[in-house]
Amino acid sequence: MNRFVRRLLRAGLGDVDARVLVSEMDELYRRKIAKDGQAAADAWRRRETRRAAIHAVAARVRGPRRRAERSGHPTGGWMGDSMLQDLRSSVRALAATPVVTLVAIASLALGIGACTGLFSICDSLLLRPLPVREPTRLAALHDSDGQSYWSNPLWEQIRARASLFGGAAGSAIWRFNASTSGQTDLVEGLFVSGGFFEVLGVPPVLGRAITRRDDVRGGGPDGPVAVLNYAFWQRRYAGAADVIGRTITLDRVAFTIVGVAPPGFFGVTVGSTFDVAVPLGAEPLMRGAGTILEEYNSSWVNVLIRLEPGQAVGQATSAIRAVQGQIREATIPASASGSRAKRYLARPLEFQPAGNGLAGFKGFRARYTRPILLLLAAAGLLLLVACANIANVGLARATARRHETAVRAALGASKVRLARPLLTESLLLSGVGALLGLVVARVGAHGLVSGLSTSTNRVALDLALDWRVLAFTVVSATVTMMLFGVGPALRAARAHPHEALASGGRGTRGGDRAGVSGALVVVQVALSLVLVVSAGLFGRTLGSLSHRDAGFDRAPVLIAEFERQSGRDAGLPDAALQQVLDAARRVPGIGLASASFVTPVRGQSSNAAVEVLGESAPQNATAYLNVVTPGWFATYGTTLVAGRDFDDRDVAAAPGVAIVNRAFAKRFLQGTDALGHVVVVPFRDGKVTLTIVGVVEDAAYVTLRERPRATVYRAYAQRGPIGNWATSVSIRSAGPPVATLMRPLVAALGAVQPNLSFTLRPLADQVDATLVQERLLAKLSGFFGGLALLLAALGLYGVTSYGVTRRRGEIGIRMAMGGTPADVVRLVLRRVAWLVGAGLAAGCLGAYWAARFVTALLYGVESRDPVTFAAAAGALALTALLAGAVPAWRASRVDPTTALRAL
After folding, report:
1. d(CA 632, CA 647)
2. Distance separating alpha carbons of residues 304 and 200, to the nearest angstrom
C-alpha cells in the first residue's frame, strides 16, 4: 500500500486522509478474502482503490470550486491561482526539454521576425503617412498620362494660384557636391520652394525655414541659404548649436545655413532623404549656363498642395482645370509647335492624394513593392512551416501527458481546464517568439534597407515602430499560437476518464496522433518545396545576370566621373580632359584611358529619333546616343566587328562620323553592311549627318536586363556644344587589380587641376549596383528556403521517431519471426516515402500555381522551369531521406526480447 499512498499524496490528498482511506480499504479487503478468496480479493482491491482515490481527490478539488460558485465568484481567486499554477507548470514543462523549446522559440522568432521586418518595410513604403501636419490634406499634381514632374515655369504658375487651395509647395531631388577639389563629397540635396516647410507644417528645430524671400534668382536678402537635415546636422556638425550662420559649399557655391529640419523628416519622396535643402531659385547659381529653371519642357519639380479644410481632392482638381488653359499657355513659348506642343496644351491636370508620400523619380515604390510583398509571402510560408513543426511537438506533448489529462478529467476538470495547460505553453512560446521576433525584425529591416543602398543611390525608409507594426506582430503571434497550440489543446480536452484506469497510460492509442502528424509533415514538405523552388528561380536569375556577356569587360575598368568645374562651365574643358587622360596613362599599371558622356549600366541614357538616309525608318525609330573618345571601345573590351575606331582624323573640322552597334544595323539596315551609310542624329547643336565608319558588338547600355538596343556613337572631338554633360573618364588596368590602382589614380588626377572634383569607382561596383533587387530576392529567398528545408527535416525526423517508438512492439515481433534489419529499414522508410511523395506532389502544384507572380522578376529562366522544380524536389527528397534514415537505423537495432517484454 505504500506505493498507493505515495500516489495519493502526489494527487493532492493530505497525509492523514490518505492513510485513513488506505485503512478502510484494508478492512474491506480482509472481508473479501474471507468471502470470495485471495485472487478475487486482489482484483477487487486494485479496482476499488483506484476508484476511491479518484473520488477522494475529485471531492477535494470540487469543494473550493463549488464554494466559489455559491459565493457568486466562480472565477475568483481559485481561477487566478489556477492560471498562475498553469503558468508555473508550463515554464517547468518547457524547461524540462530545453533543446526542443529553444528550437521552437528560434523558429518562431525567425518566422515572426522575418514577417514583421518585411511588413515594417511595406508599412514605410505603402501605408505610413508623411511625418508632417495633417498629411491626409496633401495632394500631388499629376496629368492624365501619369506625369508627376513639372517644369519650374509651370510650378510658378501653380504657386501664383495657391489661393485656390490651402497652400502649394514645390521640390526636386538633386545631388550636390560639397567638395571644392579632389574626390567629390556627394550629399543628397533637395531644391524647395519658399514656404515649403511652412506648407507641410514642419517647423525647424533650430533657426528658421526657407521663405519666399529666399526663393529668388541669385538669392534673397541673406544670399543663398540652406536648411540641414537633422541626421546630417548630427553626422557632419556633431549637433553644434552654432551651426546657424555657418556656410556650406554646394557645387562651388557658398550657402549660409539658416535652419535645421526636425528629426524624422526625410522629405516628401518615399525611399529617399535629403542632407541639405536649398531654394529652387538657387539653381542657376549652381548650374550656370546649363540652368533648366526657365525651360518649359524640363520636368523635374514635384508640386504638392495642401487642401483647405473640407476641400476634397476632386474639388481641387476642378479648380485647377478651370485655369489649366491659362497655366499651360503661360508656360509654353510662342515658337513651340507641332504634335508635342498640342499634346502639352491638351493634357488635363489633376490632383491625387499624397498623404503617404511621392513615389520618386526612379520609381522606388513601384520597383520594390512587388519584391517586398513576395518576400513577405515567403516569410509567411516559412512561419507556417515552423508552426507545423511546433504543432507536431505539441501533439507529442499531449500524447505523453494523456494519462495525466485523463486523471484530471476523472477528477471533474472541464474541457477548458484540460486544454489550458497546453494553451498556456503555446502562449508562452508565441509570446517569447514575438518579443525576440521584434528584435530580429528591427535588425533585419535596417540591414535590408542598407543592402538596398548603393554608392550611387542611397535608400532611406522610416522604420520606427508604429501601431501598425506592433499590431501586425501581435496578430502574427496570436495566429501562430492558434495554428500550433489549438490542435494539441483540443486533443487534450477530448481525454476520457476511463483512460486513467489504464496502468501508466500504456493502453492509450496513438494512431490518430500519427495521422495528424503525418498530415502536418505533408504540409511542411509542400510549403518547403514552394520556398525552395522560389529560391532556385531567383538564384538562377542572379546568376544569369551576373554572368551575362554584357559586351564589355567589368573587372579591369575604373570610372572617374568629373563634376562641373564651376556652375558656369558646361562639362570638362578639352585641355583639362587631355591632362586628365595623360595623367591617368602615366600611372604604373594603367593600360588605356578614354572619355565619354555615358558609361555602361549607369542607369542613364540619352536617346532620340534617328534616320538613315535612303532607308525606310522602322517603327519607333529611336536609338541610344553617346559621345566617346578614340580607344573607348578598347578600354571596355568591346569588339570592333567592321570598319574602324575613332582616331586623330576625326577632328571638329572634319566630316562627321559615327560608329553603330549590331542592333542598329539589324534594325535600321536589315542586317546589311552599315559602313558608308549616313545617319541623321539630333544633338544639342541641331540635326547632324554622320557617316558610319565602324560597327561594334552589342553591349548592355542602361541595365543588364535590357535587350541590345540600337546605339549611335559620335566622335568626342566632333560633339559640338555639350550643354550640361559631365564627362566620365574610363581607365583600364594593364594587369594589377583595380583596387590597388585607386590611391595612385586619386593622387594623379587630383594633381592635374586642384579645382577639379571627381568620383572614382570600379566598373564592377557600378554593374553590381544594378543587381540590388535580384541580389535581395536571391539571398532572402535562399535563406527562407534553406530554413524551410531544415524545419521540414526536423519535423520528419520527429514524426518518424515517434512512429518507430509506437511500433516498437510490432518491430520486435517482426524481428523475432525472422525479419532482418534491412526489412525494418524498408518498413520505416516506406512511410517516409509516402509522406514526402504526397508533400512533393502538393508542393509542385502550389509552386506551379504561384509561378505566375514571379515571372516579371526573372531573367534567363522560365517561371515553371522543369530543371529548377526537379532540383528542388531532389533536394527535399534527399533531406527527407537523411532525416528518416536515423530513426530507421535505430529501429533496425531494436532487441526483440526487450521490445516484447515491454508489451
Report:
1. 11
2. 9
| Separation between Cα atoms, residue 694 and residue 674, nearest integer Å | 8
Is the Cβ–Cβ distance between 537 and 868 less than 8 Å?
A: yes
Other Cβ atoms closer than 10 A to 841: 15
Q: Where are the alpha helices (DSSP H) in 71-97?
A: 77-96
DSSP structure string for 690-721: EEEEEEE-----S-SSSPP--EEEEEGGG---
- Please identify which residue in the block is written with the cell numbers 488653359: 325
Contact of 395 with 487, CB cutoff 8 Å? yes
- Residues β-bridged to residue 175: 188
Q: How far apart are CA 69 and CA 77, in angstroms?
A: 12
**CB-based contacts of 236: which residues, under 8 Å, 6+ apart?**
228, 275
The grid cell for 753 is: 587641376
Q: Residue 845: pLDDT band by 50, 70, 90 thresholds?
A: very high
| Rg over CA atoms, the chain | 38
Asked which of 258-262, 484-488, 585-589 is least confident by mean pLDDT, the reply is: 484-488
Nearest to 515 by CA among 806, 790, 903, 878: 806
Q: Are 247 and 254 in contact (CB under 8 A)?
A: yes
Strand (E) or helix (H) holding 410:
helix 402-410
* Tens-digit pLDDT profile for residues 240-271: 989 999 999 998 899 999 999 999 898 998 88
- Please tell me the distance from the alpha carbon of residue 434 to that of residue 429, in angstroms, as a whole number: 8
pLDDT at 10 over 70: no
User: CB-based contacts of 573: which residues, under 8 Å, 6+ apart?
Assistant: 565
Four-CA torsion 853, 854, 856, 858, nearest 10 degrees: -170
Q: Does the structure show a pLDDT above 70 at 133?
A: yes
**Which residues have C-beta within 8 Å of that of residue 589, sequence separation ≥ 6?**
733, 734, 735, 736, 740, 741, 744
Query: Which of 642, 630, 512, 649 shows the shortest CA–CA distance to 581?
Result: 630
Residue 560, C-alpha cell as written in the block: 572617374
Res 12: pLDDT? 47
The pLDDT, as a whole number, for residue 1 is: 47
253-260/225-228 β-pairing: parallel
Q: Where in 629-756 does DSSP place strands (E)?
A: 640-643, 657-661, 678-683, 686-696, 711-715, 728-733
* Residues 200/132, Cβ–Cβ less than 8 Å: yes
Which tens digits make up the pLDDT trace of 541-554? 999 999 888 999 98
What is the average pLDDT value for the chain, to the nearest integer? 82
Q: Which of 375-389, 434-448, 491-505 has the lowest mean pLDDT?
A: 491-505
Residues 6+ apart with CB under 8 A from 725: 570, 571, 597, 627
Model confidence at 460, pLDDT cuts 50, 70, 90, reads confident
- How many separate helices (H) and strands (E) can be counted in the chain? 27, 23
Helices (H), 97-161: 98-122, 152-160
Residue among 114, 121, 158, 584 at smallest CA distance from 378: 114
Q: What is the pLDDT of residue 49?
A: 64
Q: How confident is the model over 642-665, as a mean pLDDT?
A: 93
Percent of the chain clearing pLDDT 70 (strictly above): 82
Query: What are the b/e assignments for 249-278, b being 16+ CB within 10 Å?
Result: ebbbbebbbbbbbeeebbbbbbbbbbbbbb
Dmax over Cα atoms in the chain, in whole Å? 135
Sorting pLDDT into bands at 50, 70 and 90, what band is 34?
confident
25: pLDDT confidence band, cut at 50, 70 and 90? low
Q: Which three cell numbers stand for residue 460?
A: 532611406
